[in-house]
Amino acid sequence: MKVARFSRIGFILAASGSAIGLGNIWKFPYITGKFGGGAFVLMYLVTVVLIGLSIMIAEMLIGYLGRADTVTSFEKLAPKNKQFWKYGGFQALAGLLVMIYYSVVIGWIFNYIVTSLSGLPSSVDEAKTIFSTMLHSDFKTQLFYHTVSFALITFVVARGIKGGIEKLNLVLMPMLFIIIGGMFLYATTLDSFHQAVEFMFKPDFSKIDSTAFVTAVGHAFFTLSLGMGAIMTYSASLEKGQNLVTSSIVVVIADTAIALLAGLMLFTFLYEYGGEPSSGPGLVFISLPAVFYQMGILGNVFAVMFFISLAFAGLTSAVSLVEPMIQYFIDRFSWSRIKASVLMGLFFYLVGIVAILSQLDSFSSYLTWENKNFFDWVDFFTATFMLPVGGLIMSIFVGYIMPKSQVEKVLRPQLGRAFDTWYFSLRYIAPISLVIVMLNLAGVIG
Ligand code: TRP
Asked: Which of 27, 108, 395, 437 has its CA 20 to 30 A from that of 148?
C-alpha cells in the first residue's frame, strides 16, 4: 500500500527527531535536578544502553519486517494467535494520548518565543507569576497557541511521510543541533561550567531510591520514543536492506548527546546566575527566563533561540506521536491521509482543551482526582504505565514469539557477535527491569 519511503538520512533524522523532544530539553534537566544529578544520570545512561538500545532494535525490526501500521505488523509477524497479538499494535494509541498534553506544552513554548522577543522577567518571582498566570488563569492564550500547534502538526502529517514528516525533520533537526550546540559552546566558556559537569557526572548515590530508578527507566523509554510504535511506524517506511542496528545506535547517541548538552548548558547558566537546579517542571519556563534576563541583550537572543529550539524538538516529536494512528486508519480502514490526519488532530486538539481547563483555577476542581489534575494524569498514565507495558510487549514479541530464525536472519549479519548479547538483553534484562518498574508503580515493592 505504501509507496513513499524515507531516504536513509531522512529516516535517521526523523527517528532522531522523534526521540529528541521535550523529554530531552525540558524533562531530562529537571528530573536530573530533582534526583540530585550524577547518580541519576548514570542510571539513565545505563538504562538507555542496556534496555533502550535493545528495545529500539526490536521495535525497528517489527516495523521493518511488518511494513505496515503497528496493528497489522504484529498480526503479520505473529506465527500463531494472530488475533491476540494484533492488540500489541494498539500501543499506538498511547502516542495520541501523549499528544493531548504535548500539543499544549508546545503551545506554551510558542507563547514564550513571542513574549521573549519583547522582554524577560527580571526576577524568578516575576517569572513564576508569569508562568502560573498563564497556566492557572489565561485560557485564551493557551487555547490560541494550542490551536496553532494543532494546525501546524496536522498540516505536516497530512502531507505524508516524504513531503511532510521527512521535510520537516530535514529542516528543523539540523537547526536544532546548531542552536543547542552553539549555546552549549558558549556555556563552556563560563566559570560555572565545571560545576555543571560535576553536578551531572559526579554520582551521589545517597539521592537514589526506587523512585529514581523507576523515573530513570520510564524516562529512557520516553526519550527514545519507545513502546508506542512511533519508531515502528517510521521503520515500516524504510527501504529494504537498511541497517537497523547502525540506525538505532545513531538515534540513541544523538538523543543522549542532546539531553546531556542541554542539561550541561542549562545547569551552567543556572549556577552562573544563581538559579536552582532542583526547581522542577518550571525549570525552563521559570528559572531560565529569569537567568536569561541577567545576561542582558545576549540573554534576549538566547531566550528566543532556546525556545525556538524547544519548539522544533517538540514539533518533530509530535508528528511521530500522531503518525502511528494515522497509518492505522489509512491501512486498515482505507481512510485518506487527509481524513485520518484531521480526525486524529481533532482528537488531541479537543481533549487537549480539557487538559488546559484542568489546570485553570476556575475549573481544576472538576477535573482533579487523587491530587492529580487531568493534564497530570495523562502524563502519568502514559509515561509510567503505557510505555513500560509497550516495551514489555515488544521485548516478549521479538524475544519469545517471533521465531528466532526470522530475527536472526536480519539481525545476525548486522550485529555480528553482539547478536547473542542483544538477544539475551531483550529476553531477560529488559523484561525483568520493566516488570520491576511496574511492580514498583503498583506499590508492591519499594
Ligand atoms: N521522545 C520524545 C521526547 O523525548 C517524546 C516522544 C515522541 C515519544 N514520540 C514518542 C515518547 C513515542 C514515546 C513514544 O519528548
From this structure: 27
Using CA positions, which residue lies closest to atom 12 of ligand 1? 225
Which of 25, 59, 98, 387 is the best mutation target for the ligand 1 pocket, counting ligand atoms within 8 Å of the beta carbon and taking the most? 98
**Ligand 1, pocket residues at CB < 6 Å:** 18-19, 21-24, 95, 222-223, 225, 228, 230, 317, 320-321
**Residue 224: closest CA among 45, 411, 422:** 45
**What is the b/e burial string over 163-183, where b = at least 16 CB atoms within 10 angstroms of the residue's CB?**
ebbbbbbeebbeebbebbeeb
Task: Name the closest-CA residue to atom 6, ligand 1.
Answer: 225
Q: Within 10 A of 291 (CB to CB), how many other CB atoms are there?
A: 24
Q: For residue range 74-126, what is the model confidence (pLDDT) as tens digits?
A: 999 999 999 999 999 999 999 999 999 999 999 999 999 999 998 899 988 99
Closest CA to 222 of 94, 86, 93: 94
Alpha-carbon distance of 33 to 41, in angstroms, equals: 10
DSSP string, 348-397: HHHHHHHHHHTTSTTTGGGGEETTEEHHHHHHHHIIIIIHHHHHHHHHHI
Cα-atom radius of gyration of the chain, to the nearest Å? 21
* CA-closest residue to ligand 1 atom 14: 225
pTM above 0.85, yes or no: yes
Whether the pLDDT of residue 63 is over 60: the answer is yes
Smallest CA separation from ligand 1 atom 8, residue: 225
Domains of the chain: 8-441 (1.10.4160)
Say how many Å lie between the CA of residue 224 and the centre of ligand 1: 6
Q: What distance in angstroms lies between residue 190's CA and the mean position of ligand 1's atoms?
A: 32
Q: Ligand 1: distance of its center to the CA of 96 in Å?
A: 11
pLDDT tens-digit readout, 141-170 = 999 999 999 999 999 999 999 999 999 999
